[in-house]
Design a protein that fits this description.
heterodimer, A: alpha/beta, Rossmann fold, five-stranded parallel beta sheet, globular, B: alpha+beta, four-stranded antiparallel beta sheet, ChlI/MoxR_AAA_lid (chain A), AAA+_ATPase (chain A)
């Protein structure tokens, strides 16, 4: 508990004015979810991920996705060792606790799917051999908004693999001033201390799973989900997997709030981040947030 | 509910189902194009639901309206009638459904649907129809309540249950209003359904008519006896008296009495027993007849006697007639006499009328009649007996499909060549022979027999019981009944038509599915009888509960003194009481919330008094935080209450109701 708050506090010094997003990012990792950060270049996406890895004490690697990146560049390759005269597997960047997939939508769909498969299975198959990935294993991907040139937008089925999608947005004037002064941002990364080790993180993740979910809350979540299926301004409603994602994120949020049970506010806090990228809005001006303000909390 | 909000899938489906169901009972009245339009509209909406169809453009919808109006305009003359109005309503339902997108449209559709259900009652009021319309109503209620449910897809059964519960709640009030509200005449009216097309006896008998009636098992009337019930062979239900013969057709000539310039009182009486036309015999039967509409004025009686309803009168020919055609189900009670009263007077003009035969044709019959008359010593009764044995001894055969006798001497043809026929032939020939000998005689048309049901002392008469028989005048004895058909086929009179035609002909050839055909099957017959009994009760006590019946019933119940005042007081009091009971029940049901929910709703009420109402989507903790931000004085206790409450509600820890109550009392 304490450690997590310390992490968040430390992170908020690096990324100024984005407390809510930082909390959501930490929440996502506590819920064992992968994170997608979508924003324009230069908004601090990469910095946030570096900082996350640092404070959580996770070994991390970064892959800059480009259109000529091959699946093997992520999973690793088997090479012939002259000295021992055998083939040796050289693991790729995916074999790290935290993988930063930068600008994932610049890579070709083939490479994207290699990564996404690893995210789902938590293992990779190379030359017919299954190689388990480390635990914990997180993928934090960043992407440019799809209207930028030279991108391959992720298909809906693969967007679903990410527990949350966040947008950072421009900093407020005060924070931006601090960044320009050099008091925040990437320059501060070096001063960041580590508050957790991987084993502790796994323990916390297990605590999150124990968080209690009551019937009344489930009723509320059901109402929200049903509404996405009935409302005509969404192309398709939420899947049961989306519902599960919503529940685990809400549990993590409740845990971060210091409760061992989930209340509607927890669901509301994570709702847009969890659900936003899974729903496609048909009608202009109808936002996912509107669902929250039109659904009764009490049946 | 937002008027502009979209209609949910479930509600749309309910409304489509309701459209098809509601069109069913009025399909006979509405032009086929409108029915097709309804089916098209339902299909198209389903296509849209499935994502395969598009909303129709304005010009096309406009075109459909023109088609609907055009078909109504062309189908009905005169244009303004009940059927045309209902057709326009049905078209409105179908077309509105086609463009229904918002809640407001859907409400319009639901209300048109209710109205359409109500109009179906104008065409038929049977028990089956009532049950069916109730079902339609439930579907419409389900559709309507679906409009007000913003979220959550409810399964069909629970929507239906909900609608059923709503309808049940309305039952006590409905009964009360039905019994108590005074029946008022309509403020406006459209011409009622045309009755000319109904089947039934007419006042002219060509043998083909009864053969046609014998093919139908349609109900004609039911008679309920208090006390004794006559035997089957005594159940001659008179309807028309046919005393004019033109060589082919027997006609009723009551109306020609007035043409003869006779005063009305000579042939019509409202108090037959005082008319001096006939004396009653001893055996009396008391019964009540509920007859189906016929569109004709005559009623059915076993004989002539007894004061009946005010709006009917007896003819001198001993038949009863209402003062206007029977266009809706009619209930009248009789104090009847069987076999028939004895007429005591026979003026000359009546003798003349009842001995009339065409001047030409049927020579053989005339000669034969005179021969028999002389042989029997000019005694009409003996002659009749001889004629009956003539029918019995010769090779006469009872059949519903006899050859056609269309010669100018049709009676000769029948008596001496064909010798095949049914009641109309036998009765007609018999009367012709009697008249040829100068004996006054006439043909009586009506129904004979009927199915007796001990349960309820009820006799049901159907169209295939239609019958014709003869009466002859015997001085000193009056009119005597002779049934020549009985001489040929005793079964017809003893056991009914089916027994008479035996296995040689098909009974009810046009209605293979009629339950009546299968009455030998034990269970089916029981079901049929039970259903018919229920139907009878329904018609008698619900449909027929009109102005007079209501007043009689209520006067019995409330007493005669200050009757209208009492009615008004009982009505007001009853309605208020019912509403009170209903609202108390609802209140009780609301209190069946869980203790936790009850506490929270008390909290909400308290907060509402201070001006705080949770917004949609505002959860408990956020609400409490908002309150504490705005009102310092209660910030602390509200937060304390809220913390305990959410723990109880969401952690599902042991609920400490007492603790919550204490906290709630703190502000």
């Amino acid at each position: 508990m304490n450690e997590v708050n310390q992490c968040i506090h430390a992170l908020s010094k690096i990324i100024r004015g984005k407390d809510q997003e930082i909390r959501l990012a930490v929440c996502c990792l506590l819920a064992r979810g992968h994170l997608l950060i979508e924003d324009l270049p230069g908004m601090g996406k990469t910095t946030l991920v570096h900082a996350l890895a640092q404070v959580l004490g996770l070994g991390h690697q970064r892959v800059q996705f480009t259109s000529d990146l091959l699946p093997a560049d992520i999973t690793g390759v088997t090479v012939f060792d002259k000295n021992t005269s055998t083939f040796v597997f050289q693991s790729g960047p995916v074999f790290s606790q935290l993988l930063l997939a930068d600008e994932i939508n610049r890579a070709s769909p083939r490479t994207q799917s290699a990564l996404l498969e690893a995210m789902e299975e938590r293992q990779v198959s190379v030359n017919g051999q299954r190689q388990p990935l480390p635990d914990p294993f997180f993928v934090v991907a960043t992407q440019n908004p799809v209207y930028q040139e030279g991108t391959f937008p992720l298909p809906e089925s693969q967007l679903d693999r990410f527990l949350m999608q966040l947008e950072l947005g421009y900093p407020d004037p005060e924070s931006e001033k601090a960044i320009l002064k050099g008091e925040a941002g990437r320059v501060e990364l070096g001063n960041l201390s580590t508050f957790l080790i991987a084993e502790q993180l796994i323990k916390l993740q297990n605590e999150v799973i124990q968080v209690h979910v009551g019937d009344m809350l489930l009723d509320y979540v059901m109402r929200l989900i049903t509404k996405t299926r009935e409302a005509e301004y969404f192309k398709v409603g939420l899947s049961p997997r989306a519902g599960l994602a919503l529940m685990s994120a809400a549990k993590a949020w409740a845990w971060m709030e210091g409760r061992d049970y989930v209340i509607p506010e927890d669901v509301q806090a994570v709702f847009v981040a969890v659900v936003g990228h899974r729903l496609q809005v048909k009608e202009q001006g109808k936002s996912v947030r509107e669902l929250l303000t039109t659904t009764q909390v009490m049946g | 509910m937002l008027a502009s909000a979209l209609v949910s899938r479930a509600s749309t489906l309910w409304l489509i189902a309701a459209l098809l169901l509601v069109l069913l009972p009025v399909w006979k009245q509405v032009p086929a194009i409108i029915i097709l339009l309804g089916c098209f509209s339902a299909g198209w909406r389903i296509a849209i639901l499935l994502g395969r169809g598009h909303w129709l453009p304005l010009w096309l919808r406009f075109g459909l309206i023109l088609i609907a109006l055009g078909s109504v305009g062309l189908s009905f003359k005169p244009l303004i009638s009940l059927e045309s109005s209902v057709s326009i309503l049905a078209a409105g339902y179908a077309l509105k459904l086609l463009e229904m997108r918002s809640q407001r449209d859907a409400l319009v559709v639901v209300y048109i649907g209710y109205f359409l259900v109500a109009t179906a009652v104008l065409f038929s009021q049977t028990l089956l129809q009532a049950g069916y319309l109730m079902f339609c109503l439930l579907i419409l209620i389900a559709a309507q309540q679906g409009l007000f449910r913003s979220s959550g897809s409810t399964p069909v059964t629970s929507s239906f249950k909900f609608a059923g519960a709503l309808a049940l709640q309305a039952v006590p009030l409905t009964i009360l209003l039905f019994v108590l509200v005074p029946r008022m005449g309509p403020l406006w009216s459209v011409p009622l359904p045309d009755s000319s097309a109904r089947t039934g006896l007419t006042d002219a008998m060509t043998p083909g008519d009864i053969a046609r009636l014998s093919r139908s098992d349609e109900l004609v009337f039911r008679a309920r006896f208090s006390g004794d019930v006559p035997l089957a062979n005594q159940r001659y239900w008179r309807a028309v008296v046919l005393d004019q013969f033109d060589g082919k057709t027997w006609k009723q000539s009551d109306q020609s009495f007035s043409e003869a310039g006779l005063p009305r009182t000579n042939w019509i009486s409202q108090q037959p027993e005082k008319s001096g036309w006939w004396v009653n015999r001893e055996s009396r039967y008391q019964y009540e007849v509920m007859m189906e509409p016929t569109g004709r004025p005559w009623l059915y009686t076993l004989g002539a006697a007894g004061a009946v309803t005010e709006n009917s009168f007896f003819f001198r020919t001993m038949r009863l007639e209402a003062d206007q055609p029977v266009d809706s189900r009619l209930l009248y009670s009789m104090d009847g006499v069987v076999p028939q009263p004895r007429s005591i007077s026979m003026p000359d003009w009546l003798t003349e009328l009842n001995t009339q035969i065409p001047d030409v044709g049927n020579d053989r019959s005339r000669q034969y009649a005179l021969k028999v008359f002389n042989q029997s010593g000019q005694d009409p009764v003996k002659m009749a007996g001889q004629l009956l044995s003539f029918f019995r001894q010769n090779n006469f055969y009872y059949t519903l499909s006899p050859p056609l006798y269309d010669d100018i001497s049709s009676v000769d043809q029948f008596l001496f060549e064909g010798q095949k026929g049914f009641c109309a032939h036998y009765a007609g020939a018999f009367v012709y022979l009697m008249r040829s000998a100068g004996v006054p005689a006439r043909v009586i048309g009506g129904y004979q027999g009927g199915e007796f049901k001990e349960d309820g002392n009820l006799i049901q008469v159907r169209q295939f019981d239609a019958h014709a028989w003869a009466e002859i005048w015997v001085a000193g004895q009056g009119w005597l009944r002779f049934d020549p058909t009985a001489a040929v086929s005793p079964q017809r009179v003893e056991s009914g038509l089916e027994a008479a035609i035996g296995g040689s002909e098909t009974f009810l050839p046009d209605s293979p599915l009629s339950l009546y055909r299968y009455r030998e099957l034990g269970i089916l017959n029981k079901v049929r009888l039970a259903f018919e009994k229920a139907e009878y009760q329904w018609q008698r006590s619900v449909v027929n509960f009109k102005k007079d019946e209501q007043e009689t019933f209520l006067r019995d119940l409330l007493g005669d003194k200050d009757f209208y005042w009492r009615q008004a007081v009982v009505l007001t009091f009853g309605v208020s009481l019912t509403l009170l009971i209903l609202s108390l029940t609802l209140l009780y049901r609301r209190q069946r919330l869980s203790p936790l929910q009850k506490i929270y709703s008390r909290f909400l009420k308290k907060m509402a008094r201070r001006g705080f109402v949770p917004e949609v989507g505002e959860a408990e903790l956020s609400f409490a935080r908002r309150i504490s931000k705005w009102d310092d004085s209660i910030a602390e206790p509200v937060m304390a209450f809220c913390q305990t409450y959410i723990k109880a509600a969401y952690k599902e820890s042991d609920i400490e109701i007492a603790e919550l109550k204490r906290l709630l009392a703190g502000f």
